[in-house]
Amino acid sequence: MRKKDLLLGALGFLLGCSSTFAQPSSGVYRLVAGRGTDMIMAENYETRGVVCQTKQEGTVYAHQYWEVSVADNNTCTVRNVYTGRYIQPQTGTSQMFQTGDAQNSLALTAKGDKWLLKSGSYLHCDASYNVVNWWDANNSASYWTFEPVTMTADEISAARADYQAYQAMTLDKEGYTAKLTKYFSDAACTTLNAAYAGSGDAELKAAMAADGLPAALQQMAVKVKNRSWGTREQEFRIHDYKPYSDASSWAGPLHTNPYSYMNNPTGLYAHTGDMLYVFVGGDVPEGATLYLGGQLGFDPIRSRNTGTELQKGFNVVRCTQDEMMFFVLYTVNTVDKTKKVADFPNLRIHIEGGVVTGYWDKERHTDADYVDLLALSTHPNFIVKGSRHIWHTTTAHMRTVMPNKVKQGIDWWDEMTRYQQELMGICKDVADGKRAAAPDNLTGGEDIYPTYFNNLMWARCGDGLSGLYATHYLTNYYGGSENLVLNYYPENNDFDVWAPAHETGHMNQEAINMVGTTEASNNLFSNLALFRTGKHMSRGGKISTVMRQFQQHVPWVSHDISDMMRMYWQLYLYYHMAGNNKAFYPTLFKLLREDPIYRPQGKVDAARESLHFVEKCCEAAGEDLTEFFEVWGFFEPINDVYCGDYADFYVTAKQEDIDATKARIKTYKKKNTVLMFIEDRIKAIPRTDGISGNKVTYDVPLGQAGDLGHYTEFVNGGTDSPVASYVYGRVAATVTMQGTGGVGFKVYDSVDSLVAFSNSYTFDIPMETAQNGTFRIVAVNADGTEVAVSSVGQSGTAEQKLAALNKALEQADTYLNLKDETQTKVGYYKGEKLRHLQELVTQARQAVTDGQSASYVQLTESLSAEILLLKQTADLTIPIVAGSYYSWKNYQHGRYSMVNGSGGVVNNVTTNLTDDYLWTFVPTTTPDLYYLKNKGTGCYVGSISQSVPVMAEATDTADAVKYYVLPVGDGTFYMQAETRGGYQVIHDAASQGHQTVGWDVGSEASHWYITLVGTAASATLETVGMPGISTGIAEMGAKAPAEEVMYDLSGRRISRKPVHGIYIVNGKKVFVR
């Protein structure tokens, strides 16, 4: 049983609680919140706030009991049993109710078998378990149940007498301070005066008792005199606490989430009714506040004024909850920069009472101390304090997962946080030029941290927590993830560098966060952590994907998250890793703090958002980055394009605003035309974490991110890199480069507009450009100079011409392998349609065998023309037949077919295709856009989002989602939701038990073979061709028109005689030579 100086139990009142809830009459009650049966209305008697707390049994919880006096007019007064104060009126919406001495009547209204209490609006238990003023009478969190408590008038009086005794002590702090100065030489009561240092224990106690000092203070004095501290007790009871800046006040100027107020743990906790005696060694400086704040479980402290305000000398705090941890909140006002953090002294504080549980502090402890402190801890949670980050963890998990060492883990977290803050341009070391050398490569920014701002970040990880996320004052990691997110050491292959950096990045991303990038812009910091930790290559999409989206005129806001984050990373690669402007990101963040992006919910004007970002990037770089942002889709005009990014946004980019932005950034003399090509996954990179070998790839294997443009080629502005020298071959729309040097290639059309770019030797140009045949290709050097590239037929060697022909044969084989005589494999070719290609392949192979080099160019061109015709002619392939049924087999997981299961759409291995495995495509008025319907259940596929299981439960198309069914080009298809948002492609997630989820199109597990299983009697044919343009003009089964009807590829009907090119005649594509 716990001892207390003022023990309510000694008063002898016993409580008997009824098991039934009754209509209230005057009496004593627990008020049970509708938010949860274990949540009870209580008074926080330190702040006078009305809150909800977990229901507790015992004599020390009188602050959870209320004396209710009911009047005849359906009103009542509600008075706290412990303090004797009444609930006061509250008129501000969402504002907490307070208690006070004045009586106040609350309206009492029945709500079924529960009750509404009203004063202004309704007393409502909010999500933070504060009782606030709320308007909604139909919200269950505004309902209260009156649970009777048996309590006599004498017992109520005893409870209030106890509170009054406590209050008397708190109101006479100066008196107690004065008495203690007789015995101690310092206000923190750490050293006895000479007159008492040699006294006996009994003599000292008697003198203090004669002065009216309670037994607890007498025991403290004896302990100090005799140095009779318990194990590691003194280091936590007496400590010099640092000042910390105001987390909330700095969040606005820094454009971050607020960091933590919990920077000064005490290593002490207490239970309800426990008294803490706090002795402050000095005056609280002007411009500072000092509180002792209590904290429960994993809840953060959200205000510098939490808890009990402290002053020099004696203070007393009574604990209001069990297992409450305590933090010193020594908060200084530095946001106006008239004072620095260093202008405020440390304060020595001595705390008696409660339980010493300890914590680990990087500044004063070693790993050996950690083992000792972990064994000492008696609280369910354990704290680890670093220099920039603080962990709040489950003690039992730490003993299991990290029993022997912690320093290497918290060091990693501190460094990860440093990388982010320095990149943001807020750190003194960067502003002073101390981070200019590799691997930091940073200059510029402002001197803010730690001069004016020094709050730590708070990460919680433990029992009862779920998910990974960031919010105000904290990042969150589910219980059991300690080895994944805390326990860093190079040999721990389970440690996930990405997750902590990603969530911490959410805390810091606001300045660069555009619509659609909440899960992308923070990955600038995630990739930075990967690079600096030294084990992994960076993550994200490929340049080839960006080119495809550029050719499709995809606006920036509609890019996939995995691609968006590469835009931010390319800027880092070029300016920092390659060293071309080490002040770029610190300057950019500073500019965007001073003149921020404006992204309100609802309507968003790109002129103040994405285009504003473009202009600030150019200002930070001192360069015209038009071409870079052009290929990333920033200059695509859009009108109310929807983006769901934790809220609903509708983005508009007007052409006049785009033109104005381009005009302004073209005033920079230097034009950067190479930034689009930079990559860091072209060549192997040695590990830098002390482990031998090369860095590990993640989503893009080495060699699949391109052939050119490794970031090292751009060092010194690329002036030392090899000069490009190439010839090109072309088969249909596929271009193949032969040569050396440079960092990438660009293709311009007949009016000199950029239509393609690539850092790969093989890439596609638009079909229209290939058909037209008038274009020019340049190879780009790292310094931005361009070299014209001629065709292999014009200037290639015999060896290069042979290589071009072999490339054409390779592509031809791809098409020949897509022959399907059964005519059941959608996207494959009917055998007779490939006859001419087969004849050309036979001729070409014979020419190679015979060494007929003079015919190589002609044969290559013939193969190219035939493949172009195959690509452009939709009715050569096996079509989707609306009304027929198909199986969908995954490309990457070849044994798995999609089935509509009870827990959603999944993928199983089967040879027995029951109806649940069969799907039909219900056409819409848009070519290639379908509803996906399961035969077994008759239900349609619904919405899709990243990693979330796809469900086929919609019973009609009104509740279903339309999907584009589009060819990949290898006989497989991908199915993407109509909105074409990021991660809206149907995907077989092997890591989720082969659940079907939303993911991106680049993954091979998002590609599907579609095979006809059953044909409906009256099927309407709908063509899905190889990559190209769906005509949408005539159905394959339609009767031919009496007269010849001709369209161009844009769908416009024409009457003139066609010139060379591809046209649609009577519903079929015709190649006019």
Largest beta-sheet details:
9 strands, antiparallel
First-last Cα distance: 99 Å
In which order are the strands of the major sheet placed? 1-13-2-5-6-9-10-11-12
**Structural class given helices, strands, pairing?**
alpha+beta
Name its key features.
26% strand; disordered N terminus; 24% helix; seven-stranded mixed beta sheet; disordered C terminus; 1073 residues; alpha+beta; elongated
Element layout with pairings:
Blueprint (H helix, E strand, L loop, with lengths): L15 E2 L9 E7 L5 E6 L4 E6 L11 E5 L4 E6 L5 E2 L11 E2 L5 E6 L2 E6 L1 E5 L5 E4 L9 E7 L2 H19 L1 H9 L12 H4 L3 H10 L4 H12 L7 H4 E4 L2 E2 L1 H8 L10 E6 L4 E6 L7 E8 L12 E2 L3 E6 L5 E9 L14 E6 L2 E2 L3 E2 L5 H10 L4 E5 L3 E6 H7 L5 H17 L4 H4 L25 E6 L5 E4 L2 E5 L3 H4 L12 H11 L14 H11 L9 H9 L9 H17 L6 H11 L7 E4 L4 H12 L4 H6 L6 E7 L3 E6 L1 H11 L59 E7 L2 E7 L3 E5 L5 E5 L3 E3 L2 H6 L3 E5 L5 E6 H4 L2 H19 L18 H16 L5 H17 L7 E3 L2 E6 L5 E6 L2 E6 L9 E5 L5 E6 L27 E6 L5 E5 L7 E5 L5 E5 L8 E7 L5 E3 L23 E2 L5 E2 L6 E5 L2 E5 L1
Parallel strand pairs: 15-21, 24-25, 26-27, 27-29, 30-32, 33-39
Antiparallel strand pairs: 1-13, 2-5, 2-13, 3-4, 5-6, 6-9, 7-8, 9-10, 10-11, 11-12, 14-22, 16-21, 16-23, 17-20, 17-22, 18-19, 18-21, 25-26, 28-29, 31-32, 33-34, 34-37, 35-36, 35-38, 38-39, 40-51, 41-50, 42-43, 44-45, 45-46, 46-47, 48-49, 52-53, 52-54, 54-55
Helix pairs in contact: 4-5, 10-13, 10-14, 13-14, 14-16, 17-18, 18-20, 23-24, 23-25, 24-25
